[in-house]
């Protein structure tokens, strides 16, 4: 059972995706992730992009904690339907539509979204079957889409080697929680 940990919808139970098609972020990792993000001051009022959203638990947690907007991008029908249920739950609690679900492949979504749209926080939790090259291709598509001071968080298996990040992006933190590793990145300062 997954839940929203804190904020306006804190304590609410989220719907999970049945089967083995998704790998939900554990509450322990989610709590540590959001503790870090809040200490960096990037959640409140942020425009958040949750790529490979699965059930949307990371994105709806962001909305519950004060993000201005959250875009959940998920290609699998069943997972996108669950993400929509969880978005509806949080939107009802907030009293407005903060969370939107986009049923799309990540690459397709980034190609067709308005060119002037930017995000303050990008959460990427791709399936472990997505190779490092695939992760880096998606990150490359984000280059012109990150607001000043943006943070990108990439979640991978702790057994995966660290990708070779593009020169325009710097890793400023790296945290390991059991089988999960989080890399925190920000645009490099010229």
Automatic annotation (TrEMBL):
Domain of life: Bacteria
Entry keyword annotation includes Transferase: yes
Record GO terms (molecular function): methyltransferase activity
Entries under SUPFAM superfamilies matching the protein: S-adenosyl-L-methionine-dependent methyltransferases (SSF53335)
Pfam families assigned: Cons_hypoth95
The entry's keywords: Methyltransferase, Transferase
UniProt-listed InterPro entries: RNA_MeTrfase_RsmD, SAM-dependent_MTases_sf
GO biological process: rRNA methylation
PANTHER family per UniProt: METHYLTRANSFERASE (PTHR43542:SF1)
Protein name, UniProt field: 16S rRNA (Guanine(966)-N(2))-methyltransferase RsmD
Annotated gene: rsmD
